[in-house]
Amino acid sequence: MTSIRQASPTDVCKLNLCNLDPLTENYARKFYFDYLVRWPTMFIVAENLKGQIVAYVMGKVEEDPDYVKLLGADKYLPWHGHVTCLTVAPQYRQMGLAKTLTARLDQACEQENAWFMDLFVRVSNKTAINMYKGMGYSVYRRVVDYYSDDPTGNGTSEDAFDMRKSLSRDRSQKYIREDGENHSINPEDIYHP
Q1: Region 156-163: what's the mean pLDDT?
Q2: Are 46 and 56 in contact (CB under 8 A)?
Q3: For residue 36, what are the contacts with CB-CB under 8 A and spacing of at least 6?
Q4: What's 187's DSSP letter?
């Protein structure tokens, strides 16, 4: 049995069960603490009965600075939620924790009146892609060579899907597209193609 709750500062030192997974991005402790301070309701953990963190999600809300509007409305990213990191310890997978944590983050961003949610996922991570699609996310575009690390040991980089989900503020679903898998960009063009 696990409990879902908002992260606390001491949790940052208890993420090892999740962070040892090769598909999980690891960050400096300062990064985790920055999220706790800036977006405390969007750093959510699952804790087992032994007090171990067995899953967590980190997210934020953000938008482009106003000057980007001068580049054209199509280049401006409005207020939106972003899934920075979602991970579940291997022995706790297939229990619905990732879906539960993602739904909680979606709700937190909905409360912040965000237009949409977005995230990046490895194109090889079919399990995650299918989970996100089942939750209403769709591929917005493919980011070529987004991941420069190589957990498979093949010595190559890997593409990412930029996936999005409209929230209630985006009634016309302006920030998603049907054929996202057919749109490719380079990493340097993610925010301002």
Answers
A1: 89
A2: yes
A3: 7, 8, 9, 12, 43
A4: G
- Alpha carbon distance 130, 97 (integer Å): 15
Q: Beta partners for 4? A: 46
C-alpha–C-alpha distance, residues 54 and 37, integer Å: 22
- d(C-alpha 143, C-alpha 193), whole Å: 11
pLDDT 10s digits, 18-63: 988 877 888 899 999 999 999 999 999 999 999 999 999 999 999 8
Measure the CA–CA gap between 92 and 17, rounded to whole angstroms. 10
Spatial CB neighbours of 97, under 8 Å, sequence gap ≥ 6: 2, 46, 54, 55, 88
The residue assigned the tokens 């106003």 is 66
**Average pLDDT score, the chain:** 89
| DSSP calls for 131-183 | HHHHTT-EEEEEEEEEE-S-TTSSS--EEEEEEEEE-TT-TT-TT--TTGGG-
* Alpha-carbon gap, residue 188 to 120, rounded angstroms: 14
The CA–CA distances, whole Å, from 95 to 54, 82, 98, 106, 157 equal 11, 23, 8, 19, 30
> Among residues 50, 56, 44, which one has the least CA distance to residue 1?
50
Its pTM stands at 0.87
- Taking only the tens place, the pLDDT of each residue in 117-131 is 999 999 999 999 999
Contact 12, 57 (CB under 8 A): no
Q: Which of 25, 31, 29, 35 is nearest to 14 (CA)?
A: 29
